[in-house]
Amino acid sequence: MDKTINQKAWFLVLPVFLVVAFSAVLPLMTVVNYSMQDTFGNNQFFWNGVGWFKELLDPSTDLGGRFLASLGRNLLFSAIILAIEVPLGIVVALSMPREGWTVAACLVILALPLLIPWNVVGTIWQIFGRPDIGLLGYTLNSIGIDYNYVSNALDAWVTVIAMDVWHWTSLVALLCYAGLKSIPEAYYQAAQIDGASRWAVFKAIQLPKMNRVLLIAVLLRFMDSFMIYTEPFVVTGGGPGNSTTFVSIELVKIALGQFDLGKAAALSLVYNLIILIVCWVFYTVMTNAGVERKARAESEPAVDRSPAGALQPAVALASKEGVV
Amino acid sequence: MHTIPGRRLIMALFLIFLLLPIYWLVNMSFKTNAEIVSSMTLWPHTPTLQHYRRIFTDESWYSGYINSLEYVVLNTIISISVALPAAYAFSRYRFLGDKHLFFWLLSNRMAPAAVYALPFFNLYSAIGLFDTPWAVALAHCIFNVPLAVWILEGFVSGVPREIDETAFLDGYSFPRFFVKILIPLIASGIGVAAFFCFMFSWVELLLARTLTSVAAKPISAIMTRTVSAAGMDWGLLAAAGVLTIIPGALVIWFVRNYIARGFALGRV
Hints:
The complex is a heterodimer.
Chain A: E1 4-5, H1 9-35, E2 37-39, E3 45-47, H2 51-56, H3 62-94, H4 101-111, H5 118-129, H6 135-142, H7 153-181, H8 185-194, H9 198-226, H10 230-235, H11 247-257, H12 261-305, H13 314-321
Antiparallel strand pairs in A: 2-3
Helix pairs in contact in A: 1-12, 3-7, 3-9, 7-9, 9-12, 11-12
Chain B: H1 7-29, H2 33-38, H3 50-57, H4 59-92, E1 93-94, H5 98-110, H6 113-126, H7 133-157, H8 161-169, H9 174-185, H10 187-203, H11 206-210, H12 219-223, E2 227-228, E3 231-232, H13 234-251, H14 259-263
Antiparallel strand pairs in B: 2-3
Helix pairs in contact in B: 1-13, 3-4, 3-13, 4-7, 4-10, 5-7, 7-10
């Protein structure tokens, strides 16, 4: 649909602009302001230039060491959960029942963890994993595995990762399911006539059709795991030691724990910059995918007339395409 | 062809994996603290409602739910009412800077709450809103307004443009068209957007905790302080947790087909 150019539309957008500007730009300016200064309490500020930023990127200083270590931990965490959640999500989406009341039941149960307050997710896993009162911790210990997420760093990691998989795999699964549902029945019929194997169907039909949603899923999961705070904070408090202290936890420690405004602000800016870059990639890829899809939709009838497309009943294709 | 071998088993195992921790929480909430600490029981042997009774009678507990609901509802109302006209504008018109504005909104949805915790604390203290539901409601707008715009834009785009044109030809003024025609047409979309604003505001802890101290303390912040002199009150913590799951669980049925859309910013 072509949109008309109308600058008066700005009046309609103005409320959103004002609300978001009030709660985003104003605070961000404070952060920029703080990041250049040092304070010794009593609201006395001293100019510090780019001092904090230098310190932040230098691993030999206390601030830099803490930041880079937490950044490394956070990236490792994001990589692990993506490696587990994306394949698992695809498998779960492919395992969805096809019709009947079970579809609705599965959707509801899948969505349940997504709607639980994040601190309660932490609480659930805290209770579930404790060796003395938790089902998981108790069972593991009674079959001879020494498991204690409070004292053992590896166990803490396993718990935090299991918790994130529990919390967010459903999102990947639901997104993939939405992608799978948009595949017209005719594609499968054509594959059947060609005698394609199940793996070939997955590789040639299902995976390409899920491309777009998978992209969204990967980026959403990356962003959210990159700024994870509440769940590990409730379960492990960043410990044992610093082993599960991710960037957000470190930042809150510096900002609200020590009230080290300059350091916290510098960290915030660098952190925000990383997010902004990833976000830009997200936006560009998504917009391009949208343009591509539009272009493909326009060229699709042409493809159908070609001999290669002859196996796909064009009528069924056209009627199903509206589902997308 | 559509699915994979052993799908029933995979689905069943995954659903059990999802439900088991939740079951354990519910299970704990009905146990006495003595039973929780002393023995490992798969279901409450001496079921009790004492934890729920305590939450519903102790003001320091139930006020947490009221505080949470207050800012969540405020936030939902603000988000939806400012997002509606913007969604219409994004869906129908092109204007100077529209793409940049869209990206800017997205980047705010993605901004880490930890970055904003401290500046928000300063900002809302300075304007005297600290420790009121307004502070949290406005702070949560940073991620909920973009979300509402994106979801509503999808629904507005689903309304044929001819309807607008016919209405204007019939002499409807813009506000009247908006209220009388457009809003009823996208009522379900508004419902979905409101649900997601409600949900994302409900699940957030960091900003809500930072911006309140006593009077407007949300339930999630109260829950982090169940440690008493006698040790952790696990049963009470579990009961409070179960009660926070209920709002989501109640409406989940009605929005089950929109969950993916809501989490993917209306892009699916």
